[in-house]
Amino acid sequence: MTKSLSATGRGRTIVLPRLVGGLKTLGSVLVTLLGLAALTFMIGRMLPIDPVLAVLGDNATQDAYDAMAAKMGLDQPLLVQFADYLWNILHFDFGNSLLSGRPVADEIARVFPATMELATLAMIIGTGIGVPLGVVAAVYRNSPIDHVARIVSLLGYSAPNFWLGLMGLVVFYSVLGIVGGPGRIDMIYEFDLQPVTGFFLIDSALAGKWDVFGNVLSHLILPALILALSALAYVSRMTRTFMIDQLEQEYVIAARAKGIGRWRIVWTHVFRNVAVQVITVVTLSYAFLLEGAVLTETVFAWPGFGRYMTNSLLSGDMNSVVGCTLVIGVIFVVLNLFCDILYRVIDPRTR
């Protein structure tokens, strides 16, 4: 009986703190999302673009102006407008696009898979090369491979994506002809692909149309490599910095004194201690790729999220701009929450 009570007490001491921690995390996420909603609401009200004139045009009569303002709820007090705004975004209603007349949520759902497919492949390439490169550069500090890693990082930081994209199209598409041109797919294959998920690689693979898959990949690989270069530069440089700091710790010297092999120390002990930091770098890089691929999408005529948001901003389509801004904020919040969960899984000290 005593053992049963003690086990129950131990269970409560484990479950209750985790439950409280989970509720705190959920509360902070909800407060952040509420603040994000308030920020986007104020952006839509403070910009010098009149949403009524954007719909009716500059020659609208006063009666038409007042009627449209009432229809859009702009004649209500600010708090009522904010409450209606919260209710609408909870139902994924960002209003209609002024350019297409379609719901903004449908427009974002149409263009976002293209950017996600591009950014995901770029992040896989950047992480798959950047992390090992950073580790090896730290282990062989000031060696030729370390200098190569620094040059790659410098190139990734300093070379503009639009210039790399143009040069890549000239060399690999126009001259060599080994990659596809602008766009996601050639027109001759466009009607052979039935979108299911919105990710053309997945849709073509599910349909078993490998010729379409190859064509989609040929269009995707060059912009993905250019985006991957910037991610690779950041990931490799930060990984190198984290690893150098850990390689100078006393536990590494003690492990070497015990006769443990170099690479076993590096991957089993040192990299495990920097894994949480590397996850943070990779996650934030992925978030920036999802919302910051505007120049690359423009050069390659990629029908993605960044290009859609830029066109909406230039056209004064504030419903689309506010909807895109809200989506970007939610992406960062979700990825940070994902990071926090991974911390707890990988590092028991954070639980």
UniProtKB/TrEMBL annotation:
Sequence intervals crossing the membrane: 21-43, 118-140, 161-181, 216-235, 274-300, 320-343
Keywords from the named record: Cell membrane, Membrane, Transmembrane, Transmembrane helix, Transport
Keyword presence, Transport: yes
Alphabetized Gene3D superfamilies for the sequence: MetI-like
Domain ABC transmembrane type-1, chain residue ranges per copy: 112-343
Similarity section: Belongs to the binding-protein-dependent transport system permease family.
The name this protein goes by in its record: ABC transporter permease
